[in-house]
Design brief:
By secondary structure, this protein is mainly alpha-helical. The protein folds into 2 domains: about 80 residues, no CATH class; about 210 residues, MetI-like fold. The chain contains 14 helices and 9 strands. Helix 5 packs antiparallel against helix 6 and helix 9 runs antiparallel to helix 10. The two termini are about 15 Å apart.
Length: about 350
């Protein structure tokens, strides 16, 4: 890259170049895109219907995928399993029948579904023939495919972060911008309101707001209510950051010139001042999304948020609330892995964006 091109490039191009140099952040971005594509096409990627029960396969362990059968190389396959109960411990167990391998097929017909709730399909990415079911991550106590439920749950858990952060961004920019730009009594009232909201302990506040949600509400209503609750709690920190930035920028020459020229105050705030710290907002939003996801997961895990039959990662973790379940059926903790990976990759991408926001720094 020529030196003249570097110093004449736009701010966004400089940020892009700097971000692409951060390999860990780029890898995290690729993983994030894969996660959201998985959530978008979860019906097709799921091997089974996440709501379909199979009593004969309750608490079935994950299928082991094999490549060698009777000493020879074979297409990826699994063995059918026969359930039985241990006469001493009364624990249900499964034995593989090695005489008849079940080949894993690509695009087999399976449980019917509607892609995005509109187009009816029966093809899944992977599955078994002859009506057999593939359980890559095992099943829960009702015999429902855990992998399918995790993939469906990603749609709720990942989208609630985006929707919640969008609402937080709007509230934070508007309220924080008004507070910093006008100052005086308006600034004092808004800051006292923020201090009151931040003084409430988080968990008791969640308890009170969640208890106010009627039990008769539909899953969609509960979802949007949860998103609203998380956003109403999370906007205060961003509003203070925006206020501080506006206080620093409102006396700059271009802002004073815009006021003298008779530009509307809302236009000065949104078109002249906010773009001055857009890069900082991007980093803040990127780091806020995993906080929203963790908040939803925690509330649902504590049975204060989303409730069955709604599927989210927090709802799935309700089955792993006791030591016995974790000791006997450790695969029920699989949603934790997806939560950890999601939070980590968002933080890695946030680190890359933070460095890219100051492209002239070595």
């Amino acid at each position: 890259m020529r030196e003249a091109e570097f110093y004449t490039a736009s701010q966004w191009r400089l940020m892009t170049w700097k971000f692409l140099e951060h390999r860990l952040a780029v890898c995290a971005l690729v993983i994030i895109l894969c996660l959201y594509l998985t959530a978008l096409f979860c019906e097709f990627l799921s091997p089974n219907d996440p709501y379909k029960r199979d009593a004969t396969n309750s608490y079935a362990p994950p299928h082991r995928i094999h490549l060698i059968h009777e000493g020879g190389l074979h297409r990826p396959f699994v063995y059918p399993r026969t359930p039985h109960t241990d006469p001493e411990t009364l624990v249900k167990d499964y034995t593989d029948d090695t005489s008849q391998p079940l080949t894993i097929r690509v695009l087999p017909q399976g449980d019917p579904y509607r892609l995005w709730g509109m187009v009816r399909f029966r093809r899944h990415l992977l599955g078994l023939d002859n009506g057999e079911r593939l359980y890559p991550l095992g099943t829960d106590r009702l015999g429902r495919c855990l992998l399918s439920r995790i993939l469906y749950g990603s749609r709720i858990s990942l989208s609630i972060g985006l929707v919640g952060v969008t609402m937080t961004l709007v509230l934070g920019i508007l309220i924080g911008g008004i507070s910093g730009y006008y100052g005086g009594l308006i600034d004092t009232c808004i800051q006292r309101l923020i201090e009151i909201l931040r003084s409430f302990p988080t968990i008791p506040l969640w308890l009170a707001l969640s208890a106010a949600v009627p039990a008769t509400w539909s899953p969609v209503q509960v979802y949007f209510c949860m998103t609203l609750i998380i956003a109403l709690i999370g906007w205060t920190g961003l509003a203070r950051v925006v206020r501080g930035k506006i206080l620093a920028l409102r006396e700059e020459d271009y802002a004073v010139a815009a006021r003298v020229a008779g530009v509307k105050e809302t236009s000065i705030l949104l078109r002249h001042l906010v773009p001055g710290f857009t890069s900082h907002l991007i980093v803040t939003v990127t780091l806020a999304i995993p906080e929203m996801i963790l908040a939803e997961t925690s509330l649902s895990f504590l049975r204060l948020g989303l409730r069955p039959p709604t599927i989210s990662w927090g709802v799935l973790l309700q089955d792993a609330q006791n030591i016995r379940a974790i000791a006997l059926y450790p695969w029920l903790m699989a949603p934790v892995f997806f939560v950890i990976v999601t939070v980590l990759v968002f933080n890695f991408m946030g680190d890359g964006l933070r460095d890219a926001a100051d492209p002239y720094r070595n």
